[in-house]
Structure formats: C-alpha cells, structure tokens
Design a protein that fits this description.
- The complex is a heterodimer.
- By secondary structure, chain A is α+β, with helices and mostly antiparallel strands.
- Among the domains of chain A are: about 140 residues, no CATH class; about 160 residues, Sulfite Reductase Hemoprotein, domain 1 (2-Layer Sandwich), CATH 3.30.413; about 80 residues, Alpha-Beta Plaits; about 140 residues, Four Helix Bundle (Hemerythrin (Met), subunit A).
- In chain A, about 40% of the residues lie in helices and about 15% in strands.
- In chain A, a hairpin with a 5-residue loop joins strand 8 and strand 9.
- About 0% of the residues of chain A have low confidence.
- Chain B is an alpha+beta fold.
- Chain B has one domain.
- Chain B contains four helices and nine strands, in the order E-H-E-E-E-E-H-E-H-E-E-H-E.
- Chain B has a nine-stranded antiparallel β-sheet, with helices on one face.
- The longest helix of chain B has 20 residues.
- About 10% of the residues of chain B have low confidence.
- The chains are: A alpha+beta, B alpha+beta.
- The interface between A and B is large, with 53 and 42 residues.
Chain lengths: ~750, ~210
Amino acid sequence: MKASNSLWKENLSGKLPEDLAHEVDHYETELGLRKQGKLDERLIAETRLRRGVYGQRYDNGQRHDGKRVQAFAYPSGNLTKGPNTLWDAPGMQRIKIPAGGLNASQLETLAELAEEYSDGIAHITTRQDVQLHYVHIDDTPTLMRRLAAARITTREACGNTVRNVTACPLAGVCQDEVFDVTPYARALSRFLLGHPDCQSFGRKFKPSFSGCVQHACGLANMHDLGLVGVTRQVDGKDVRGFAVYVGGGLGTVPYQAKLFHPFLPPEELLPIAQSIARVFARWGEKKNRNRARIKFLVHDLGIEKFKELVWEERRTLPPDPRWTQYLDRAKELKEEPLHPPGETSVSASEGFERWRKTNVRPQRQEGYSTVTVTLPLGDITANQLRALADTVRRFTRETIRTTVEQNFIIRWVSNRDLVDIYEALNAVGLGEPGAGTIVDIVTCPGTDTCKLGISSSRGLAAELRNRLAQKSFEMDAAVQNLHIKISGCFNSCGQHHVADLGFYGVSRKMAGYAVPHFQVVLGGEWEGNAESYGLPIVAVPSKNIPRVVTRLTDRYVANRQSGESFKDFVKRIGKVEIKNLLDDLTRLPADDAGPSFFSDWGDPREYSLGDLGTGECAGEVVAAIEFDLAAAECEVFDAQLDLEKGNFQQAARAAYLAMIHAAKALVKLELRDVPDDPDRIVQEFATRFYDTRKFFDSFAGGKFAQYLFAAHASSGQPANPDSARYLIDEAQLFIDASHACYNRLGAVSVA
Amino acid sequence: MEFQHVNVKLFVKNAEEVDLASLIPVFHSWIQDQAKDELLLDVADYRHVHAGPGLVLIGHQGNYSLDNTGDRLGVRYNCKAVLEGTNQDRLVQAAQAALAACQRLETEPSLAGMIQFNGREIEVFINDRLLAPNRPQTRAAANSEFRTFFSTLFGDIDYAVSYPQDPRSLFGVRATAFQSSDTATLLDNLQSLAQTTGPRWGSDEVTSACRS
C-alpha cells in the first residue's frame, strides 16, 4: 500500500468530476467496512468487480511452486476481498477506455499508475481496455481518483454490467466506413454507465460499434450488442442508421449474433439499447451463471420473440432527453489534423519501408495516414507511454486509440511526417513492423495472471512471435496475413474462435504426468466482423505448437489454390487430412526433448493442475481411460465432419455420443463394468461425479456436466446447423473437462 | 521530506552476456526456498518488451527484477511496503536488498558466473510522485540525504551524480563511483554505518562530481 494514499484525496480535491469523486469515496468506505468485518465478502467482491478490481492467479493464497503447494502468509492474514480471495493478494485493475480513445495526458497518467501501483507495464486488452496487474486493493481508491482526474473511469469495467463500449479504431478515417461511429459509441457508453436499468444483469453485457460490414474492426457478430453503421437513401439524401445485432458472444461455446434490426435510426439507438438492457435484466438467467449471457436468452426465446419483448419495452419507456441530445453534435464532431497533408518523404531505411508496408494505412482524408503501434503481447512500459504521449502531441492533435488487436493506432498523421514519426517510435522500441500480420499475435493473460488459465498463452505467443518475426518478411504473402489468436483456456478471451490459427489451453495426461496442451482451432474468420467461428481439430502438447504453425502454413503455401483463403483451404483439404498432418505432434517425442513437455513456455515449474504422481494401479487405469477419452475425441471430430457435410442430425448424434463415451470413461474409474446404456451412464456419472462434485472445476463448477445432462435430455430431437454446432463445441468442452477431472483425480489419489 | 517506496538499481557489467531466460528458473527457486526475508509470490516475464522491466520477481513487500529500463540491464529492488524509520534506514534497506540479490545471482551455481555487477553505478528512485515529485525543490530537499547515503555506500571512493530531467519521471538520482567495488564491499560499507566527512555536492547541476 502506498504511503501517499491518504494524501491523494485532499490533493485531488476539486479536480475530479463530482460523480466520480463520490463514487470512489463510497468504494473506499466499503473497503473500510469490509476490513472491519461489517461487509460480507460476496458483497465486497461484487463491489470491487463493478469498479474493475479483479482477482488474479494465486489470490487464494496458494501457489504450486513446482515442488509443492505453498501457502502465502500475508500480513492481513485471512481477511478476504471475496470468497476464497485474500485481501493482500495482488489483483488486476481494469480501466475502461470507451471506443479506445485516449489523449496524451491520459497516456501519461496511465504511465504514472503503471509505475507506482503495478509492475511498470500497462496491458492493452482485446476489448480496448487497459489493465494493470499486481495491484494491491488498498491502492485502488487512489488509483481511481488519479484516473478520474484524467477523466477516466474504471466503473463497470468488470462484474455483471455493461462493459467497455468498443468501436472500430479507424472510425472517422477509414476508407471503407459508411460513417464515423465514434460519437454514437461515446454517447452509448455515457448513457449506459451506471444506468439503473443495467444494474441487475445475470452476466456481463458487451456492446461494440463498427463503421462497415466487411472488416473485422468492430467484431459486431461476436458481441452481445453489435452496431454496424449503414446508410439509406431517403429523398435523394444519405440517411444514417445502424444494423443492430444481438446475442453474439464467444465464451466457451461461441454464438453468432442475430440481426435485430437492419436499419435503426440514430435517435432510436439509445432507447433500443436501453430496452434490450431491460429485457436482458428482466428475462435473462440469474441463477445459472453459465447460461446467463444474453446469447442464451436470444437463443432460447428465438430472435422474433426477443424482438417482440424489446419493442414492448420500448413502447413503455419514459422519454429521456439524453436519447437525442448528442445527435446534433454527432455529425459535426470530427477530429482535426495538427499538420497539413503531404506526400511521404523518401527514406532509404529498410526498416521504415517494412514498417510502412504493414503499419501505415491511408486515411480517407487525402494526405493523411493512420499509424499502428504494435505492442508485443499488448504490453507497453511507462517510459514508452510517455514517449507515445510526446509523439502524439508532436504529430497530431492527440488522436490515438487502442485496438482489439492489443495495439495503438495514431490517427491523422500527415504523410510528410511518416518518416519522422517512425523514427520517434522506433527510438523507444515502438516502431516494430508486422501490424495485423501473423507476427501480431493476440493473447489473453493465460496462466501468467489469470485464475482460469490452463496453459501459458502469453508464453506461447512470445515464443511464436520470436520465431515468426525472424522470418516473417520472407514468408509467402498469404501466410504473412494470417491471424493467430491464443486463449489460455476455453473462455475465449484471446478470441481464438475468430482466428485463422486459433489455440486454447487444455491439459492432458501423458506418461502419467499432466502436460500443457492447446486445442488447435481452425476455420474461423476475422474479417466480416468475425464472420465465422472455428472448431477445435485436435489437442497438441504446448511445446509442439510452433511446429503445428509451421506445418500448417507450409502446407497452405504448397497446396493453396489461387486466391484461396486459409479458411477455404482448411475446408477444401478437410479436417481429416489436417488431423493426419498433425497426428505425430500429438505425442511426446522419444528424444531428449521429452521432459521439456512437462513444463509450459516461460515457466520451468513442472506443469501441474495439482500435485502429481503415479501408482501402479493408477497406471493400469490410465491406459484405459486415456484410450476411452481419445475415442470420444475421435467421435466429436467425426461430428465436425458430419456438420461440414450438412448432416446436422448425424453430427448432433455423434457429438452427443462422444459426451456419453467420455462420461462412461470416467465412470469406469469407479465402476469397471458400467453397462453401455446412456441412461445408466448419465445416472452413474451424475451420482459419482456430479453430486460428489468430483467433476467440478474450481471456477467453472459443474458447467460442463450440465452440457452432458442437457444433451442427454434432448437427445434425438431434430438438429439444425446452429444446434449441431453448439453441441459439438459443448462435447469438446465436456471431453476437455473429463481430461481435467481425471488429472485431478490422479492427483488426489496420490496426495 | 519522507522517502518511501525506495527503488534501487545496480547495473550489470556484462549485459550482452546475460541470457534472461536462464534467470527464470533462478527466480522460481527463490520462491520455492522463500530465499529473502520478504514474501515472494510470482515471476512476471516481460522479456518481449523493449527497454522494459525484464524479468520481475513479484513480492508482497517488494519486487526484484532484472530490469532493462533505459536499455540498461540491472538488478532493481522496488520497495512496495511502507517502512518505519528514517530516510537513511529506507535507503539502506532498499540498497541492501538489491545488493544481496546481486550477490546471490553472482554466486548462483546454475548461472556459472554469467552475471556480474559493475559495482560503481547505482540508481535510486522514490516511487511515489506525491511524496517526491521530480522537480528542483525535491532535489534540493533530498540532497543531504543522498549525500550521506552515497558516502556511506562508496566509502572513500569519489562519485558523480546525475538526475533524470523529465519532470514526468520518478524522482531519482544516479551515482557513479570513479572506481568499482564488489557487492560484498558495498554491503559491508552499508553495514559499517561509517560517518562521512561530507562530499562536495553540486547543488543544481545536472551532473556533479562528489568526494567523500
């Protein structure tokens, strides 16, 4: 805790917006009450989450150090800031950046906070937020006051709230956009922040804006509320509106958003968003967190019924002047350049030319370009943030935004300044080329800091980045432009479903030990606002993933047809062939490299989801269950093939049977002669693994078992493309969870 | 003025020979052994960031890092806890923590002497802008404290000091001795509590030579 915390409140008195000052004071009081034991730990958890104060890995006070589980003796003892979350354990502070927009002094504030309260690093997230890690909760009120003084809030950055409103970072300058969505995104963000209708959701709610249909920048299809700018001709004039999509989302099982309205006039934007929020709050699931996102509500009700409810709500809404107050200014609001337009000056620098090729994009305003500042793994130092502040002051009117690809984009750079801005950025290590290419890997925090991480997504991303950067400029152009996205677990924070090459962390047991793995997810599409989602093909040990990338990209270069996208290539050659291509990489190598597979990238500790060991009896069962689980994985893979062929009923059936067989594999650990009857298998599984909570993951609980129960209850019902696809995803997740359960059981039996 | 959250950085002599990857297991082993008096928690790897914090051993009371800020590699200790005592006590505590970490790394068997410290340069920062904003008044107020501290640290060896000029930076000072000392000697000097006779101290110059 900082010595100056008690002084900052007085120092900043009068410099904060009144509402934010009051908000932080209230939060600080609540922290004090919790310390006095006057506030329940669940309440304080929700209180802090709604202010962006998140837990971090090991915050239960325990960490496996590679040899044993260590219990940390913190000064505050057993005082908690939430269930099973110790007060003194370092946490993460998420900071909302609406539409990604920042100015120079805000960058400087972030630099100060990263230095003083974190570990010197600010991290850009896949939703345009900024995160600081290793923050002590006692410092968070001061941190929030200093942010508020810079007109930044952390309010509703986490929790069951409206999260950061994201928007295309090129809005206003993009050559392809219909119109600038920025003022609408900001208006929606202001309007919904703290709105009474948004305080009783069962889960979070993520809005996003995009200025066009064809590009990925806004990712409208994977958001709870996706808004895409469109125009119509009315009386010979272009009239603005929004195509409104609802119920999209990644998470464990990704859903494509449904079209709610093809052309919503801007004056209806805020009231409809409010109405959707009210329907979500009223009708959305509250008890079962695993089905509480709006995507489940839209799916369960059907889009037509959902629309009905929203329009009913709209009719009863009391008018609010804020719905339209901003509109007059919206069309006039535009950024200005600092310098006059110009032509790019000539540079003999090879570095500049490489950087220009990937990081510079012409604006629709002639003579100006946007410049992407690539951040490895989304990280930037305090010194770099200050240098970036200097740079945007020197070359622009402080027009900079964060991106969902974990970078910054500087807008309104005169072309005549491109060489100079490159040199300014390069001098502080911010001039790396490769924006939007295979080197520009997106990753969630994974096992580095996330409580849910299974495999080291950042470690893998760093390794891939190192390897690919060395040869990226010699690569075939088609490979250069592929997207790699990595999540440390099934929760999709790294957006692996919409990558050309997606990976998410799972664990597998090999030779009696837990081995970090990644599921290889292929077939996703980033373009078209995340137009399609990939499916997992096969789980590969983490240390073999670089070889997976090499093998797939080499094959793509060798066999692709003219103009064929990677997604189309995958579809054409088929998942069977791809699986065969990677088959040997799913096994441990026989050579000396084998032992390295038992630890993760950048982490020398023996990989563990608990204490490990083997016994002779366990060894006998290991072979049996691994064989059974592998067979279940084959079945779910077959289900994918059926789905591709349009055999939805067969696909659904195969996915269901895969779950049954995985459940049976677990049941056989306790009941060797389990009959081959699905009813009995599910019953035995429920009794032995669900009721006893043996199957429960410490964070996901019994979520994946619910997939089995739901699939069993509805088995034989007609399937459609969506339902078959969801079932396949759920089957794979159930099998992954069965592997994890088995790993844990092995651990317990030896401990 | 009160110094809290003192940071001390000691520079590596042979940065080009240091492979940070080989330091990762060493930091993890410090957690396994709880090798310091403070509670050690985790390792954060920022090798991918240009001129960044490098490799950070996260602790509860303080962080230890192989820090590459300013594109210069060194061991940095960042005291996060609020400490009792005088400013000298807090400067000495942070310097001792950093020096002890250096000594441990120099003698770490798995590193086989890979890392050596130059024993003549030290940076001290106050990681709290409200207590110590980076401006001339702070520098003036801190002069005598730094003078006493560096004189104790370097013993009889002359040194020069310089200050970061960017007012946005943390307030701090770099002292460069005119002669190297090994880490054991520097630690001994701090423990000796030797009183100095008062160095020459340039008041507002960016860089000034000092004599103990």
